[in-house]
TrEMBL record:
Binding-site residues, ATP: Q9, P10, S11, G17, N18, G146, E147, D148, V186, K195, M196, S197, K198, S199
Reaction equations catalysed: tRNA(Trp) + L-tryptophan + ATP = L-tryptophyl-tRNA(Trp) + AMP + diphosphate + H(+)
Listed name of the protein: Tryptophan--tRNA ligase
Gene3D superfamilies, A to Z: HUPs, Tyrosyl-Transfer RNA Synthetase
Species in which this protein is naturally found: Sedimentitalea todarodis
Binding locations of L-tryptophan: D134
Presence of keyword ATP-binding: yes
Length: 334
């Protein structure tokens, strides 16, 4: 039986990459009727320093973002990671399964830790092991994510396989990454070779769900492009990362294929295309940010939703953790 799990860090504002690569896909999968758990990963967020007040606010805001993007807390389970303690408990077991050599190959750790890896937190290093626990504590089978999470999901498969092998069981499923759609890797608006990211120092590099219509229009107008008009065919985008990125964003927002977008705008200048893109983005994002603001006016209601989510989640996670402990040989209630 398929079960979906995915998570987003409550650190900084949600951007267009998070929306197109993750949130929008989650809502589409929910409509297909698959059981799903969506998680604000606050334990992952603190692998780099977070101001406590900001973390609290970002967590609630992210919960509002999930709901505003179409996740129904009645249909899906919405949780805050630290409220379901089995995630961290299983992560410890996985810390003892995963190998240091595997962690050393994680490119996201290298990117985030920078040159001075000695100063990175131990949590940042162990991050992928907690991520594997997030998924496997539900025996989730499908994980929708953007392209940048691919390596972590491969590691999740390796951890599940090694656990099963070491203990001679067939307990944890080998999870399938779901990296689909035209926006699995939304690029920075300032540099078509870098992904759009919360940590980019330039605010002009990303569109966020809290941007108003004017800033969305300004950011797209100033987005880096080459001087050529849009090509007649999709092949014409091959060596034009910035142009390709804008076409892909348009396609994802409009629920079209990049081919359809090219057919519509073939030979047009960016002076025409960018305002159309900005209008489309405002059209799709404004209702979400309005709804987020409405939900944020009642933080107590958000907290209630998360509490209910945690209760439902623990009905799944507590037995799986107990069974894991049994397999490993830990004495406990029978
Ligand atoms: P995070 O918080 O960095 O990003 C959340 C989701 O957004 C996707 N994403 C993008 N997609 C397309 N283009 C982009 N530029 C872009 N930037 C981000 C990410 O791929 C992700 O799907 N480690 C995870 C959170 C996590 C998780 C998990 C995910 C923790 N446990 C278990 C899945 C399953 C992260 O940092 O995502």
């Amino acid at each position: 039986q398929p079960r979906v799990f995915s998570g987003i860090q409550p650190s900084g504002d949600l951007h267009l990459g998070n929306y197109l690569g993750a949130l929008k896909r989650f809502a589409e999968m929910q409509d297909e009727g698959i059981e799903a758990i969506y998680c604000m990963v606050d334990l992952h967020a603190i692998t780099v320093w977070q101001n406590p007040e900001d973390l609290r606010r970002s967590t609630r805001e992210l919960c509002a973002g999930f709901i505003a993007a179409g996740i129904d807390p009645q249909k899906s389970i919405l949780i805050n990671q630290s409220q379901v303690p089995e995630h961290a408990q299983l992560a410890w077991i996985f810390n003892c399964v995963a190998r240091i050599g595997w962690m050393n190959r994680m490119t996201q750790f290298k990117d985030k830790a920078g040159k001075n890896a000695e100063k990175a937190s131990l949590g940042l290093y162990a991050y992928p092991s907690l991520m594997a626990a997030d998924i496997l504590i539900y025996h989730a089978t499908h994980v929708p994510v953007g392209e940048d999470q691919k390596q972590h999901l491969e590691l999740t498969r390796d951890i599940a396989a090694k656990f099963n092998h070491d203990y001679g069981v067939d307990f944890f499923p080998i999870t399938e990454p779901v990296i689909e759609g035209t926006a699995t890797r939304v690029m920075s608006l300032r540099d078509g070779t870098k992904k759009m990211s919360k940590s980019d120092p330039s605010d002009m590099s990303r569109i966020t769900l809290t941007d108003d219509a004017d800033s969305i229009a300004r950011k797209f107008r100033k987005a880096k492009t080459d001087p050529e008009p849009l090509p007649d065919t999709i092949e014409g985008l091959a060596d034009r990362p910035e142009a390709r990125n804008l076409v892909n964003i348009y396609a994802a927002l409009a629920d079209k294929t990049p081919e359809q977008v090219i057919a519509e705008y073939a030979g047009q200048q960016f002076g025409r295309f960018k305002p159309a893109l900005a209008d489309l983005a405002v059209d799709r994002m404004a209702p979400i940010s309005t709804e987020m603001a409405r939900l944020m006016a009642d933080p107590a209601e958000i907290d209630r939703i998360l509490e209910l989510g945690a209760t439902r989640a623990r009905e799944i996670t507590a037995p799986i953790l107990r069974k894991t402990y049994d397999i490993v040989g830990m004495v406990g209630p029978t």
